[in-house]
Amino acid sequence: xRRLFPRLAVVAVAxxxxxxxxxxxxxxxxxxxxxxxxxxxxxxxxxxxxxxxVQDGQNMQKQxxxxxxxxxxxxxxDDAQKQNAQIDEMIQHHVRALIIGSVDGTALKAxxxxxxxxxxxxxxxxxxxxxxxxxxxYATFDNFKVGVxxxxxxxxxxxxxxxxxPKTIELFAGSPDDNNATFFFNGAMSVLQPYITSGKxxxxxxxxxxxxxxxxxxxxxxxxxxxxxxxxxxxxxxTLDAVLAPNDGIARGVIGSLQAHGYGKGKKxxxxxxQDAELxxxxxxxxxxxxxxxxxxxxxLAKVAVEMTDKILNGQTPDINDTKTYDNGVKVxxxxxxxxxxxxxxxxxxxxxxGGYYKSSDLG
Length: 364
Ligand code: GAL
Known about the structure:
Rossmann fold; binds beta-D-galactopyranose; Bact_Solute-Bind_Prot2
């Protein structure tokens, strides 16, 4: 009798592997932790261009599978129309819930209407979906605080509180179709604007409004091109001390442009912040090229979204901790906010390596 159990376990694992193999592209079947089919969860995600979204998708897949769900994970290549088509298809395939990392937070109204009509709950993942009442919950990091932390890191690195002479800075923001980008920028400006107003910080280009400094699609190449233009124009005659960069991809684009214009050799590189703790940027923080990044533990965000979904599907009420901040134009969306963490060379080891996000050997 004793011998029977291991054999049964082998059969269970083998049949779940078989289910996985049959699940088709983009789908994964029941994980070994579950013995019932709890249905499929649709996971439309924006892009694989930033490493974080790949991790977000994988983390959710793993966690859903452990609870007995299948997942349909699809990336839209930063194309809003493509994402709409993917969501339509998921609705037609009767997913039980949708967790959406949107490309364009304002372009999903029709899809959410269809989801509502089909009785499919919707969670906005990391990025708020605007202009629709048919969104149930939002799981994200404190986006305003991200901007505050980014700007504070620049203020500290510049010693701005005690600096005698004014410092120079150029500003970059994220993609205008991403609701988070405004929060990051507003958070950063809540710290920087008083210094700009008092003259302690000078923006040589004079470009300080969101629309002018935004970077469509969060594209690092677009940011590099704008930095090139600034360095050949208003910044040609000055030495830049800092650049506000809303994420790591943009930070690396900006740094590349600065290096191509002589910074980092004879001239000291400006302090540049970032976001997402992408490995390529963490390496630069470790070698002192990029000053800081913001760590958002995507494992934790996935956990929140998975728990929310599981509770909704089991008739329970998900945990939330913010009922005021995220007005999407139609309703204030009940939200669970996680805390972002600033990473500089000083705490990189403790936060990212000791915390298990990366291994020492990853840093090269
Ligand atoms: C934002 C997100 C950031 C960053 C950025 C670029 O919405 O909150 O963490 O990933 O998109 O993809």
